[in-house]
Design goal:
polyamine biosynthesis, 4-stranded antiparallel β-sheet, Rossmann fold, about 25% strand, globular, 8 helices, transferase activity, alpha/beta
Amino acid sequence: MTRKKTPATAELPEVSVSDDGEVRHLHLGTPWIQGSMRIAEPFAIELEYVQRMMAWLLFVPPESVSKRNALQLGLGAGAITKFCHKLLRMRTTAVELNPQVLGVCRAWFKLPPDGPRLAVVLADAAQHIRRPELAGTVDFLAVDLYDHEAAAPVLDSAEFYADCRALLTDDGCLTVNLFGRASSYDRSLAQMAEAFGEQALWAFKPTREGNTVVLAQRTPSRPKRDELQARAEHIQARWDLPAPKWLRVFKPVAA
């Protein structure tokens, strides 16, 4: 395994990259993997939990996807941003605090340059999402905000999730990667329920690595099983995501 490092700036962790032959990984000051890319398929989503963050596709008509707007908070290795931009053909924005992460993504993870459909903003996510002009404009919001210790989300309050909800269009969805101790997950889920309402929440079972993806709908809905199944099969056929398998481990939080 090879490792490449970039200098750390004040109060931000050192960013490093490691290769294990077929897959490249992003690290923030520790051996924890903060993002991955299969070198031969740079625009596919490699990690299982990141694939699950695309479960919002189950709730929208497939023909509308390319007309929608995606926003990612926390760039990581850029997997969601690249997938939305290159494969879903969406207008895509990512917000990242650490300029090193952006530089590494452009140098080592095939992140395309900014253009008419792609923008990366170097900013504090909590402040950026409060910009009035963004309210009601985001169809898919992905939140994966962890520091170098990866113990619990950096932004995880009911106020933050309310700000996220305000960004969404009427049928928009938020997906969040929750990783950490059970107590951290329960607290996060309670904060999301306060902002969105429990009826708006869906959750996956944890992955083997301990990541639990939770989805929140701006407007709660309960699609019929056959509709979800049809969309899952379409998602797999068109975008090569294992969506039919999701339905076995993805349920509404409220009974």
